[in-house]
Amino acid sequence: MGDDSIEVTATCVRIPVVKGHSESVYVELKSDFELEDVRKLLAEAPGVTLVDDTAAQRYPLATEAADKPDVFVGRLRRDLGNERALNMWIVSDNLLKGAAWNAVQIAEYFAAKQV
């Protein structure tokens, strides 16, 4: 566009899948962060599989999430226009990890905590 002052964080995906959904997610945090801290937090989160190896070009694919109950997260990167913002790519099997399954997991969590 001829204007170097325009900053864009772009994610483009064009692949048909039988089942699954993929999302490019933008998150603004309260304070600055280290990407390694975010990676560690996600790697330790139950139900989350971190796939974030840019050197080997490994990131979450809907085809690899099919038939698996986890949510796959990767392509973690700082936003170019906001130092407190994080961009990530998230995929899951929409038949296994959809609204109904989430509701069951939330109910189980609260039942275990007796809230």
Automatic annotation (TrEMBL):
Coiled-coil ranges per UniProt: none
Domain of life assignment: Bacteria
Semialdehyde dehydrogenase dimerisation domain: residues covered: 2-97
InterPro entries in UniProt: Semialdhyde_DH_dimer_dom (IPR012280)
Membership in a protein family: Belongs to the aspartate-semialdehyde dehydrogenase family.
Name recorded for this polypeptide: Semialdehyde dehydrogenase dimerisation domain-containing protein
Organism: Paenibacillus cisolokensis
